[in-house]
Structures are given as C-alpha cells and as structure tokens.
User: Which sequence fits this backbone?
C-alpha cells in the first residue's frame, strides 16, 4: 500500500516537472510550445540577375525570379513560355536540360518528358530567409 | 402665328425633351447595367471558368486593393467603341441561348478559339483597354523587376519619343488574367 502511494506521488511529480520542463522547450524559430507561433517574416521572392549559383554538382538550379504568374498544370506549362527549346534564345532564358526530354528508357522526345514536367518539384524560387541553424556548408566550386 | 398654335408648339417641344431624356437616360442606364461584373458573371459560363481564374491573378488580388473588373479589360471606354462592342455582344447572347459553352468541358474545348478572338481584337486596337490604365509615360522601369524592365525598355523609349510602337501589350502579356488555353504555342503569331 505504501509502495503504491509512493509510486503515485512519484508519477505525479514527474508529470508536473515534465510540463514545467516542456514550457522551456523552444522551436528553432524561437517559439515556445505553449504559446502561439510568431508570424513568419514577410519576405519577398528574390529576383537575382544572372541566376543563383549551384551549391553542388547536379543541383537543380534554383529559380532566380518570381513564379506566381506562371501556371504549371496538365493543360499548360507556363515555364516553357521562355525555357523551352523553341523559345529560350528569343527570351534569353536558360534552356531546359537535355535530360528533361528523355523518357525513362533514354529515348529523346520532342516535347518535355512527363517525368520532368512539373518544374517546381525540383526548381524552387528563393525568399532569401536566413537559415534557422547557422552552418559552415561550402558549395563545391 | 396665333396664340394656341404657339402654345401647342412649345408643349410638343417640352414633351420631346422629357421623352428624350427618359429614353436616352433609360437606354444608357440599361447599357451601363450590362457593363458590370455582377452582370457578366450572372452567367455560369463566365462565373465557373474565367472568373475563378481571374481571382488568382494580380488584376484581382494585389498589394493596393485596386482591381480590374470584367468590363475594364473587355469593354472599351469610349462611347462609340463601347456601343459597337455591345452590338457584337448579341452574338454572345445567341450562343448563350444555344448553350454552346454551357459546361466547363465545352468551354475548355473552345478556349483557344475564344482566347484568339480576344487577342486578335486587342492587337487590332493596340491593346486599347490595357492602356486605359497602363501607360508607358507613367511607368517607372526602375521599380520593375530586372526581367520586366529589360523587356519593356525599347518599347518605353519608343513611346516616350512618340515613335510608332513595334509591339503591343497583348503580344507578350497573354494569359495574364485567365489561364492560357491548352495547346498554346508561345512562338506562334495569334
């Protein structure tokens, strides 16, 4: 009987202690668990002339401009208005990589391969937000 | 001229003026009523398709809360051009009755053709309806993104120097307020 009472007291104390400890837990953005998260900073999409350098070999290049005007859906791919084989010269835009015209058997297609159709799965515009955790990563040059 | 003739003459003129005001005013009010967004989207053909797409674009949602409604882009402002457009609209009424595009699927099938009609008339008028709001003289290229200002630059100086424009807004700005049609070719001349 005494044992059970002791155990109960121990459990209750741990529970109180753990909630007290949890209150001090902070997210990477500095928010506490028991309060509302702060509104994220209102950052704008960056427009970088000349493009953003790759950080490592074979990295899908990041998009150095706004993309909200361009639709990519089954009917239309807005990115291909400038980046397609037929238009890139006129628009002075980088051409979509040759690999994007190959199907999974390595056959070269006339239009962009459906495997690579949804550009923003790999190519993302940048907001210029500071990393939450500082790091010393150096891109391969 | 005797007194009664003079009186009836004046009376007739008076009736004419009042009837004129009523008829003209009524006609104009009715025409203006058809020139509102609520009227345009009272047809589901417009409401379920193009109006939904418009709401995603900068012409509907933006920083300052100023927005364009259907007639701002699709109906000319000057009276005579507006009247011509309103007469052309009878064709739209005919197709509304025939149910030519009464489902989203039918609309999609016709989208390229419908878009081409708008592009053609925009090109013919040197994008008059765009220019009701957007004017090169008021455009500050330095406030634009680098890509925009680079593209606008030659046309901006043509406009400032009063030269004949080489291009018109719609040549580049297609599909800005509604989705581009399936099968749109960026290299084709529409």
Assistant:
């Amino acid at each position: 009987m005494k044992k059970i009472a002791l155990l109960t007291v121990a459990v209750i104390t741990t529970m109180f202690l753990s909630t007290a400890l949890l209150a001090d837990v902070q997210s990477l953005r500095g928010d506490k668990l028991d309060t509302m998260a702060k509104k994220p900073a209102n950052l704008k999409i960056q427009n970088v002339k000349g493009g953003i350098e790759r950080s490592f070999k074979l990295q899908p290049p990041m998009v150095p401009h706004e993309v909200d005007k361009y639709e990519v859906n089954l009917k239309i791919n807005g990115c291909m208005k400038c980046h397609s084989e037929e238009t890139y010269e006129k628009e002075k835009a980088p051409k979509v990589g040759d690999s994007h015209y190959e199907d999974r058997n390595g056959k070269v297609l006339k239009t962009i391969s459906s495997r690579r159709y949804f550009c923003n799965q790999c190519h993302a515009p940048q907001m210029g937000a500071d990393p939450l955790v500082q790091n010393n990563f150096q891109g391969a040059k | 001229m005797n007194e009664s003739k003079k009186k009836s003459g004046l009376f007739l003129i008076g009736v004419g003026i009042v009837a004129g005001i009523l008829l003209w005013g009524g006609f104009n009010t009715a025409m203006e009523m058809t020139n509102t967004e609520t009227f345009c989207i009272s047809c589901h053909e417009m409401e379920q398709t193009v109006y939904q797409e418009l709401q995603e674009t900068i012409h509907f949602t933006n920083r300052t809360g100023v927005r364009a409604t259907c007639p701002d882009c699709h109906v000319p402002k000057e009276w005579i051009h507006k009247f011509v457009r309103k007469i052309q609209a009878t064709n739209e009424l005919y197709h509304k009755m025939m149910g030519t595009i009464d489902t989203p699927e039918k609309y999609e099938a016709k989208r390229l053709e419908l878009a081409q009609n708008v592009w053609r008339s925009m090109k013919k008028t040197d994008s008059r309806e765009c220019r009701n709001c957007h004017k090169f003289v008021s455009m500050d290229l330095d406030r634009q993104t680098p890509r925009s200002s680079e593209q606008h630059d030659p046309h901006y100086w043509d406009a400032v120097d009063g030269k004949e424009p080489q291009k018109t807004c719609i040549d580049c700005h297609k599909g800005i307020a509604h989705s581009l049609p399936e099968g749109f070719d960026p290299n084709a001349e529409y």
